[in-house]
Every structure is written in C-alpha cells, then in structure tokens.
Design goal:
With 94 residues, the chain is an all-alpha fold. The protein has one domain: lambda repressor-like DNA-binding domains (434 Repressor (Amino-terminal Domain), Orthogonal Bundle), CATH 1.10.260.40. It is built from five helices and no strands. Helix 2 (16-41) packs across helix 4 (57-65). The longest helix has 26 residues, at 16-41. It is elongated and about 45 Å long. The two termini are 20 Å apart.
Length: 94
C-alpha cells in the first residue's frame, strides 16, 4: 500500500468528519481531473474551451480544481465543446 493510501486510511480511523466526507470530495476532485485531461487531450486552453462554450474562463479553472456542485447543464456544455458524449451512471454504495 502506498504512503498516501496508508495516510488516508489512518486519517479515516482518526477523523470521523474526514472519513464521512472523503468519498464525495474524491469524486468531485476526479471530475475536475477528467475535465482537465479531456481539455488538454483536445489541445485547448481553458480560455479556448470557455470561448467555445460561451462561459467565462474562470469557471473552467474552478471546475478543473474542484468540480463539486457543478450543474449537469455545464457538464453537457463542456462535453459538447470537447466533442465528447457525457455519460453518467449510478452504482451501489459499498
């Protein structure tokens, strides 16, 4: 197990609030990373993507750094601006 995973597991046992919020925070972070990687793969800057989908560039930056509470319509715009299809799924919580 990596040092980071060990730290996270230890922190979860010591900090109840951290443990309760970890999974949601991780998923918000992951969405931002996915947006950034897709934008970079398309060869676009944040400004170029923002212009393409008619939103302000700081919103792209904010989403890439913390996509918590992002509107579904905004995700659709971003996907469309990157010539991608947005897929959303639900799964059982373990």
């Amino acid at each position: 197990m990596s040092d980071l995973k060990q730290y996270i597991e230890k922190r979860k046992t010591l900090d109840k609030v951290f443990a309760e919020n970890y999974e949601q925070g991780y998923h918000d972070f992951k969405i931002g990373i996915m947006i950034r990687e897709a934008r970079q793969q398309a060869g676009l800057t944040q400004k170029q993507l923002a212009e393409r989908i008619r939103i302000k560039p700081p919103l792209i930056s904010r989403l890439e750094n913390n996509a918590g509470d992002v509107k579904l319509s905004t995700l659709h715009k971003i996907a469309s601006g990157l010539n991608l299809q947005l897929n959303i799924g639900l799964s059982t919580v373990l």
